[in-house]
Design brief:
about 475 residues, seven-stranded mixed beta sheet, binds pyridoxal-5'-phosphate, Aspartate Aminotransferase, domain 1, globular, 15 strands, about 15% strand, about 40% helix, 2 domains, Aspartate Aminotransferase, domain 2, four-stranded antiparallel beta sheet, alpha/beta
Length: about 475
């Protein structure tokens, strides 16, 4: 296997000895040279794939060529330009269902602007009534947490399923205890992420049939999972799935999906109608007839110029194969963990504090951590971000829109949080609340890998970590 000029030869050889399967992923080095050469040309080290994937060059080229050679009109019509747009959108819809192995008789695909929009569609239309349940894991993106505002308005109960403060996983007994609280003859919605955007933990997909058996509709947030793992909807049958395509292959932004079981979609009651979502509406008769699914969930004009690019992205992911991608990102994550864990300051204090599992069992290629000084005090993650930027490294800091996992990982209690929110009310806000919780800025550093990651990237991350070592 070729060595990378940015990495000392002996370091790479030692890595290869430790991970002899890595050369099986050499296709991804070739892909990086072909599709992501801008990274190495500019010296950029990208470590925020959970934030966004990077787009392969040919994906945008192909899309530009298609746009330049097509005449595309608003799809809500029957003229040739309109039909060309509809064809592009519908072909892509079928391709996405096929990619996720979803039976079109069982699942419908609703195009949305992103994963958050898909979540909102479910939250606002789920038939919550007084006494119904909305159960969700502590570990969730804010776009899932936000659904509680809909259930509260209608008198349902929000229940949070706790995670362990060390491994950030759910205990089986807690799961069973919470699932047992489904309301008989009521509406029960259970939401969890297939992969945590905070810790990289992969929560068991086995929860889906278990929850359904006990009377829950399951909303699976797959946004952080599908960039490096296949969600096989012929094996798993969640009622609702949300995702954003830019997280899978960087482009296009503004296109996401709600994959939903047709039976589950039938339960939803939309609070409004819009152009495109109705078969007929009358002003004088003050009534409307909804279009059938998925059209009745697609408000206004779809992003018909961007949607067809998703097909090229899926083609590329399929060509790479999740097996190769998972092998490479898994090996690189494992190496990084193994190298970071033993780092110690001269007085023996560990340099890195990880949040979540430090092994490779049931996890993706996302690590949450903080660096600490020789006294065990956390180094401000904003300092880390500054030093990373000086090395042209892009990583993510803060709480990553996942306050539940963040609060538990960082040991922030409900009382302390409330006190700091009260104290900072009326002042500059969020940053003040963070400083109140911890003078070094409550938050963490997140490193995540993906399609274009290589050994040089994780090596650069390790070098950055060593910057903080006091010898
Ligand atoms: C697990 C998870 N869910 C939902 C979202 C929201 O995605 P978007 O901002 O594309 O709507 C994200 C974004 O980071 C995420 O990581």
């Amino acid at each position: 296997m070729e060595t990378n000029p940015k990495v000392p030869q002996e370091v790479f050889q030692a890595f290869l000895q430790r991970y002899p399967l890595y050369p099986r992923t050499a296709f991804l080095d070739e892909l990086r040279r072909r599709e992501f050469s801008r990274l190495d040309r500019s010296g950029a080290v990208y470590l925020d794939y959970t934030g966004s994937g990077l787009y392969p060059e040919t994906l945008v080229q192909r899309q530009a060529e298609w746009l330049q050679s097509s005449v595309l009109g608003n799809p809500h019509s029957e003229n040739p330009a309109s039909r060309a747009s509809t064809e592009g959108v519908e072909r892509c819809r079928s391709r996405i269902l096929e990619f996720f192995r979803a039976d079109p008789g069982e699942y419908a695909l609703v195009f949305t602007s992103n994963a958050s929009h898909a979540l909102k569609l479910v939250g606002e239309a789920y038939p919550f009534q007084a006494g119904d349940r909305f159960l969700l894991t502590f570990d969730n993106h804010n776009s899932v947490n936000g659904i509680r505002e809909f259930d509260r308005v209608r008198g349902a109960r929000t229940l949070y399923l706790p995670i362990g403060t060390q491994d950030l996983r759910v205990r089986e007994e807690d799961l069973e205890e919470h699932l047992a609280q489904a309301r008989h003859d009521g509406h029960n919605l259970f939401a969890f992420p297939a992969q945590s955007n905070f810790s990289g933990v992969r929560h068991p997909l086995e929860w889906i049939p278990r929850a359904q058996e006990l009377g829950w509709d399951v909303l699976l947030d797959a946004a952080a999972f599908v960039p490096t793992a296949l969600l096989d909807l012929s094996r798993w049958h969640p009622d609702f799935v949300c995702l954003s395509f830019y997280k899978m292959f960087g482009y296009p932004t503004g296109v996401g999906a709600l994959l939903a079981r047709r039976a589950a979609l039938g339960k939803l009651h939309r609070p409004w109608f819009a152009g495109g979502t109705i078969a007929l509406a009358s002003v004088q008769a003050d009534c409307h007839l909804p279009a059938s699914a998925p059209a009745c969930f697609e408000d206004g004009t779809l992003n018909f110029l961007s949607i067809p690019a998703v097909e090229s992205g899926l083609d590329l992911l399929e060509k790479v194969g999740y097996q190769t991608l998972g092998l490479r990102t898994g090996i690189l994550t494992s190496w990084l963990l193994e190298e970071l864990l033993p780092l110690r300051h001269a007085n023996g204090t560990p340099l890195v504090r990880f949040y979540g599992p430090t092994d490779m069992q049931d996890r993706g290629a996302t690590l949450a951590l903080n660096f600490q000084d020789p006294h065990g005090e956390q180094i401000d993650h904003l300092d880390v971000e500054r030093r990373a930027a000086a090395r042209r490294i892009s990583l993510r800091t803060g709480c990553f829109c996942n306050p539940g996992a963040g609060e538990l990982a960082l040991g922030i209690t409900a009382d302390r949080m409330q006190a700091c929110i009260d104290e900072s009310a009326g002042a500059a806000g969020c940053q003040d609340a963070r400083r109140c919780l911890d003078p070094r800025g409550a938050g963490a550093v997140r490193v995540s890998l993906g399609l274009a990651s290589d050994f040089a990237d994780v090596h650069a991350c390790l070098q950055l970590a060593r910057d903080f070592l006091e010898t």
